[in-house]
Amino acid sequence: MTGASSGIGQETARLFARAGWDCLAGVRSADARRAWIAEGTTDRAIARHVVPVTLDVTNEADRAGVVREVSARGGKLNALINAAGISSPGAFAFGDAESDREVIETNLLGPMALARNLVPALRDGANDASNPAGGSIIVNVASIAGIAPMPWQSTYHAAKFGFVGWSDAVGHELRHDGIHLVAVLPGTVRTPMLEKADHLLDASIRTLPRVAPKPYFRGLTRFRRSAQLAARFAATPNVVAKAIVDLASRKNPPARVIIGADAHVLRAVVAFLPHRFAMAVLGGVLS
Length: 287
Ligand SMILES: NC(=O)c1ccc[n+]([C@@H]2O[C@H](COP(=O)([O-])OP(=O)(O)OC[C@H]3O[C@@H](n4cnc5c(N)ncnc54)[C@H](OP(=O)(O)O)[C@@H]3O)[C@@H](O)[C@H]2O)c1
Prior knowledge:
Layout: H1 7-18, E1 23-27, H2 30-42, H3 44-49, E2 50-54, H4 60-72, E3 79-82, H5 97-127, E4 136-141, H6 154-174, E5 179-186, H7 192-206, H8 214-232, H9 237-248, E6 256-259, H10 261-272, H11 275-286
Helix pairs in contact: 1-9, 4-5, 5-6, 7-8, 10-11
Bound molecules: NADP nicotinamide-adenine-dinucleotide phosphate (NAP).
């Protein structure tokens, strides 16, 4: 499990533990490791089943450390949950390549590299006769942003479109290893990511250069307001976590799962409207 220090990843690790799964919970900081240990003092399932491990998905040494940890515990893995992610709202024209790289590495390249490193353990997990699901699974927590392109967070869309595409494509290959691939596409979920994104948007509006076309200010402001409104009706991380635990226990999980009313509406826009009209709807509302 990656991104287990907060939000969807943290809740999913909890639910796996309560369902009796042993879970390596990938976190980046010593504080997050301590938080899991503290939670274990009052929750026996956490103490018994959750082992916090240091994992920055963009760090090769951390990824290798996780492979060693899996190997030290018998070398078989039943599920990899890629939940780590960061968002990057703001105007593309005034962004920077360093931030683009961080978003793509965290949301796409890091999880891909981790998955490749763990294929042998997942293959062994799939072949384990005691595995009731009859196969292992990689769950990629993508986003509805991976199929519905909207303005003002284009790098995040680039990463999530890539993540969904990679998940579907590599799923064709890894089924020969007994490994199912599932992309989970939630709409808005009430996690710390929303507050972080709101701060980034606020900063990008306040620092918009004078040369920015006037519609930029209006569009970013409208986007921020609509994100704040969506936050009020957001799904809880528990809903997403339950779906992930359920997927990991299924014999034939679907390749994509969409979660949340907002996500279903956006999916309908891109699935049923001609592309030109879909783009007019998605761009028109927020730009
Ligand atoms: N919240 C939403 O509305 C929403 C909607 C659709 C999809 N998603 C996706 O859901 C996933 C989980 O997000 P969330 O909403 O639960 O947000 P969150 O509470 O901010 O959690 C993000 C997690 O990712 C970790 N992380 C960030 N960079 C990392 C890196 N380089 N290596 C390893 N871990 C890293 C964070 O660790 P630190 O605590 O160390 O920063 C944190 O544990 C993300 O992929 C996000 O894109 C979220």
